[in-house]
Amino acid sequence: MTEPEDRRLYALTALALAGMLVAAGMIFLYAPQDALQGPVQRIFYLHVNSAIAAYICFGMVVAGGVAYLWKESVRGDRLARAAATVGLVFTTNAFVMGMIWAKPIWNWDPSKTWDARVTSTAVLWVVYAGYLLVRRFATPGRPAMRLAAVVGIVGFVDVPVVHFSVQWWRTLHPGPVIDAAGGPALPPEMLLAFMVTMVAVLLLAGTLVAIRYRIEARRDELEDRAVAAQLELAASHGSR
Amino acid sequence: MVAARREDIAVRFLNVVYAVARKDLRAELRGRELLPALAQFVVLALVIANFAFDLDLVSGPRLSPGILWLVLVFAGLVVFGRAFAAEKESGSLEAMLLTPAGPAAIFAGKALAAAALLVACEALLLPAMAVFLGSPISAAVVVTVLVATAGMASLGSLFAALAAQTRARELLLPVLALPIWVPFVIVGGKAVQVAMSGQSLTALPLSSQPLVVMADFDILFLVVASLAARFVLDD
């Protein structure tokens, strides 16, 4: 039995998959080889876009947390729950790809290079892993939602602070490329490949969040039903 | 009229903060539970550092900024964790929240008392480091540690209050608080390094003066923690 919501999710998944295939084609066949970095540079398309997707996901965690604290919106909390997991996946993705890229380009050695972007991404990862732990250890229901919302919001505030405090040392990470002063510092083919990949990755992230949201919604529904059944049972015992 | 009422609220807030902080400190002075244990912890941590790093006259002072922050961070976890775990165990936090006193004021009072205990801990740690490790402790080091304590106390108490309401509070507090304290360790570590090497902190350009940067963090996190405290404590 497929409900209309599920059918919509299948369609979205197919679309995201197609988008990722197109992006792969653009990255490997269309975009020109980088003169200095060689094929390794092609990591950039997925690396940067994974990071963007992760930031958007954590932005959704904050928005959902604010919606819960402000209006007691359970939907907001459900969105935060869904986005936190997906954001963590994309952070891991960006992190691992960054390390693969950095190995040949910076001759990367984690013990020597405490780059601002690397440190703040690591903190971001740990904060939202902690967020999921809070959800697991707090009393389920409203207390978990309330405490998790606070962790999600305070953690998000901390990340730019960490970034700033490491930048106080020197940092290695390349500066903005797309958003550089005086227009994008990329040939148009690379920019097009980047943009197509961005659309595909964001679509994929959106699809994953939508699927997680659906799972969480079904889970909440199940719990509500269990509670309702208990109440009914108690009521029938009481009337006798 | 409105101004007078506003002043009234501020006075009442400060009264609650003072009363809660005094209660916590008095309980600690009478019971003497946390401070002796913390003093032992600090000394033991230094002994372990001494043997683990195999310190001598050269490496002792060189490694002392790192050892200082390691001990301080873990002592902080114990202080802030106990502040709220003790209330939770005796069920007195709920009782306090039932009074007309606002949750933010209660939180601020508890954070203040915990910060005072951490300062007491630092008062032992810094001289002990000078004795055991030969660390050059100067006024700049003391000021840096105190400025960092304010921000660490606001965030640490927030997450301790939060973790106290969960099943695995001893596990959750370090996982939550340590990453959030990273900026203090980064900037404070640098500041202590500069101060211990005998350079003047004020010689650096203003925008990268560690004390100014840390004071900014203090203000930011005091605001964040006081805004969030209501949601952590209020059911």
Tell me about this structure.
Chain A has one domain. Chain A contains 6 helices and no strands. Chain A has helices spanning 4-30, 43-71, 74-106, 116-137, 142-167, 188-239. The longest helix of chain A has 52 residues, at 188-239. Chain A is globular and about 80 Å long. By secondary structure, chain B is mainly alpha-helical. Chain B has one domain (2-233). Chain A binds chain B through residues 69, 119, 123, 126-127, 129-130, 133-134, 137-139, 143, 146-147, 149-151, 153-155, 157-158, 161-162, 164-166, 168-169, and chain B through 155, 158-159, 162, 165-168, 171-172, 175-176, 178-180, 182-183, 186-187, 190, 208, 213, 217, 220, 224-225, 228, 231-232, 235.
Secondary structural class of chain B: mainly alpha
* Cα-atom radius of gyration of chain B: 19 Å
Largest sheet descriptor of chain A: none
Helix content of chain A: over 70%
Gross geometry of chain B = globular
Topology:
The complex is a heterodimer of chains A (240) and B (235).
Chain A: H1 4-30, H2 43-71, H3 74-106, H4 116-137, H5 142-167, H6 188-239
Helix pairs in contact in A: 1-6, 2-3, 2-5, 2-6, 3-4, 3-6, 4-5
Chain B: H1 2-31, H2 34-52, H3 59-90, H4 92-98, H5 103-132, H6 139-163, H7 169-196, H8 210-233
Feature tags:
heterodimer; A: 240 residues; mainly alpha; 6 helices; globular; B: 235 residues; 0% strand
In brief:
With 240 residues, chain A is mainly α. Helix content of chain A is 79%, strand content 0%. Chain A has six helices and no strands.
